[in-house]
Amino acid sequence: MWTPERLDVRSFARASGQITGEAPVTRFARLVEELFESSLAEVPALVQWRAEGSVREDPQGGTPAIWLNLHAKAVVPLQCQRCLGSVDTALEIDRWFRFVADEVTAEAQDDECEEDVLVLEPSMSLYDLLEDELLMSLPLVPMHDTCPVSVVMQVSDPGMAAEGGDKPPVHPFAALARLKK
């Protein structure tokens, strides 16, 4: 039986293992920090995931490589950067990871490969890897396609209008201009 908390990736790949699961988003503390919390309390989001292991022969006749394919889907509430309300955002991951013996090899090969190259450990947390990938899949600027409320597209200072907005603005370097004369 494979457990995502402590997965032996080498054995998992050699057995062509497959595991699936579902976890509440609240299980991923760093991801929760990025979410629109008031919406998360209303409908707790779930992450559905699947992991598959495999071993592939090296075309040059070297040591066979350990591979892991990770699929995940979730819909999470983020803060719309236009209206500042909650926007449900679909996250989807389909990543391949190849495991190597040490960090030096991983660093040397990572830039040359499309897949991510990770160091093979005796036991790894699939949930930690999943959380890292979910965080990287978050959009830089989450927004609604069309915001549900009208968005104010100008900036004003309500204090200025109350004091008499007809006065010209005070320029910070006006005093220096007078000293120059």
Describe the structure.
The chain is 27% helix and 29% strand. The protein has a five-stranded mixed beta sheet with strand order 1-2-3-4-5. The chain is an alpha+beta fold. It has one domain (9-151). The chain is elongated, with a radius of gyration of 26 Å. The longest helix has 11 residues, at 126-136.
Brief characterization of the structure:
With 181 residues, the protein is an alpha+beta fold.
List key phrases describing it.
181 residues, alpha+beta, 5-stranded mixed β-sheet, 5 strands, 27% helix, elongated
Number of domains: 1
Strand content: 25-35%
Order of helices and strands: HEHHEEEHEHHH
Largest sheet: number of strands, sense, barrel closure: 5 strands, mixed
- Give average pLDDT, whole number: 85
Structural class: alpha+beta
Number of strands: 5
- What value does the Rg take, in angstroms? 26 Å
Q: What's the N-to-C terminus distance?
A: 85 Å
- Output the strand order for the largest sheet: 1-2-3-4-5
Work out the helicity level. Answer: 25-40%
Unreliable residue stretches: none
Shape: elongated
Question: How many helices in DSSP terms?
Answer: 7
